[in-house]
Amino acid sequence: MNRYYYDFHIHSCLSPCADNDNTPNNIAGMATLCGLNMIALTDHNTCKNCPAIFEACKRYGIIPIAGMELTTAEDIHVICLFEKLDNAMAFDEAIQEHRMLIENRTDIFGDQLILDGEDNLLGVEKCFLSNATDISVEEVPELVKSYGGICYPAHIDRQSNGIISVLGTFPETPEFNIIEINRPEKVEEYVEKYSLQGKKVIISSDAHYLTDMRDKANYIELDDEPYSSEFVRHNLFEYFKSI
pTM (2 decimals)? Predict the structure, then answer.
């Protein structure tokens, strides 16, 4: 068993509110400087830069996780993570049918850049990515599970798009066994106030700028012998599913 320092909530330049410097290779390089071993790319309502982050992370010896920050019909953000890149891309295709396609205002929200593994421009997402889908929070867990993934509510300690701020409480259903908190100093307060004892707390940066990424602090212990990134990633998801 070894410690794997993680950040499971990072946005690339494809997210409209993220900096254009958040390219796959810059993210992987910054993760290395921060001492991270494992990162998830979680752009708003898309996985289209996940193939590039897989390629970039391989160069830096970082284990990549393909993900998405899904916005539900209630405007709640949910982190969706997938063990296999192919499953993430299939999920991405499925989500496109549930988006409200409103043209992006690049002068306000940014460019929404799709890059390859060398940070070359492949295209631009023309429709705004951050608005709500028509998928309810009740529907998300089973939908994600059908693509081999796991999910949990993002930054529950935030007023913007957090499940508690939107609903006024942490709901009994759907059942989430994992929660994300953005500010580590808020863990004890939120666990106690909303009776979240027994849930696994993930602390991630929600980085929209390279400078938002944090030095290593949070880790998960995983079996990694015989070592391969696929084996470690598989064991991570087995761990998540066992919670």
Answer: 0.97
